[in-house]
Fold these 2 entries.
Entry 1:
Amino acid sequence: MTSTHAQHSGYGHNYKELALSQANCQPRLMRALIVGIGAVGGVVSTRALCAGIPVCLATRTKETAARLRTSGLRVSGVGGEGICVPGEVRPLEEYMDREKFDLILLATKAQDALDVSSSLLDLLSPSGTLLPIQNGAVPQMISEKLGKDIVLGGLSNLGATMTEPGVYRQTNGGHLLIGEIRGGSSQRATEVQRLLGKAVEVRTSPNIVGAIWAKLLLNCSVTTIGAVCAQTMRQYIMSDEGMQVFQRAYDEALGVAIATGIRPQRMIVEPIPPGWPHPGMHREDYSAWVSQIVEAYGDIKPSMLQDFERKRLTEIDFINGHVTRLGMTVGKPAPVNRALTETVHSIEQGKIEPGPRRLRELVVA
Ligand SMILES: NC(=O)c1ccc[n+]([C@@H]2O[C@H](COP(=O)([O-])OP(=O)(O)OC[C@H]3O[C@@H](n4cnc5c(N)ncnc54)[C@H](OP(=O)(O)O)[C@@H]3O)[C@@H](O)[C@H]2O)c1
């Protein structure tokens, strides 16, 4: 690391803090790696480096690493502007057999996270923590593979976009939510919160799996339906078909969650609708609950629709696809979630276009 890096990224200050803490026999600073320097990973990395946290960055390719070394990192939007020069940025494989980390924040998309997670074990120190923050049930899946002692559950309510590698925008005042997959509180969750909380807002949850599922229920309904019909929820919920598809997709996913012993955790809106599992008997209360969801999420352009527009693969297999598969294992068929999954695959493959007519097909699923 050069003195230029120290000035730009605040490293000088941090290493002083590290040395002082060691002299006072305080616990040393966690050594952290961020894997996946895309939208979310880029915002967290830039804000961490600007705050003087000496995180190392891992990209997928050596070309991106070289580009970030040259361009530096820049963040704008909610939370303010920040510019920094990364101290260490390499393609992931270059860290192998060289370094160990106390914390790895895994910020790739879902499929990449599952593909790469096992190899990250070699990069963790003996009591190191892997923190995946993907949408869907990815943190749970990775913890089933690697163990709950290694994996700390996480999700991102932080909205972010990447214009090009090195240029990031924070699009809301959201936070990272972290917690033990087995539930309850832990010292390591507090330590991770303390470290990453210097960069972005980090909250802890004693029921992270419930929080992950509360987000998943909304992704299965609000986001996916909006994406396939190319509308916001506020628009599609005005039609009978839109309301029916929303209600069935949400109810199926909630039924699967409850059948597998999950207690969805309240985020902005209570995740269990009034009168559930017979919301039809409490029509006015149910309508008021849907209105709360519309107020909270109804104007957001679905991120999956942006994936369609950019011809990127979606995370549908970890959203509605996951609910459908899990439903089969607990005897809870989820035909609307299955139909949504198939519709999204057909759009990805260019066989059909997103648009309001998709609702008419889904309503008969
Ligand atoms: N963006 C948001 O506002 C937001 C909000 C909430 C939740 N999330 C969730 O957060 C996760 C990340 O989303 P994102 O929007 O940040 O995705 P993204 O912009 O696509 O970033 C993912 C990054 O991971 C990199 N990557 C892939 N495989 C890798 C590997 N093996 N090693 C190192 N880097 C690798 C990709 O590099 P290449 O481009 O070179 O492949 C890309 O830069 C998703 O699960 C998403 O659902 C996102």
Entry 2:
Amino acid sequence: MSKSHKSITKAVEDSRNDELEPKCLNGSQEAFAITNRGEVIPCCWLDTSVQKKEVDYGMLALASHIDDYDTIEEIFLQDEWVEFRNNLKQGKGFGICHLVCKKRDSPQHKRMTVLSNGKEKWTKET
Ligand code: SF4
């Protein structure tokens, strides 16, 4: 196991019981992503080797291959997605969720600045 893999694994373990503020539910970031393997997943933060070891996440990814459906909305109706969203609403996410979307006083993970004609138009931090 690499040094970075170990430190992410430890950070996820340490955050497991931390209170959640899910960015995918409060609109501060997109509510899904598509991997280069064709899986629709709840967000790009989850596409890590650490997260892939969690059985519930693996089941969601298995049920979410874009080639198996006509629309992305169909994927969101699968039991694994319904359970994931219900769990999030009750404060329970995947391991990485409790690290990335831990309730914090200030933004920590992402800053997006939009420029127009070379001048800052707006900045969003999550
Ligand atoms: S890490 Fe989890 S809770 Fe946060 S945006 Fe991604 S899926 Fe949602």
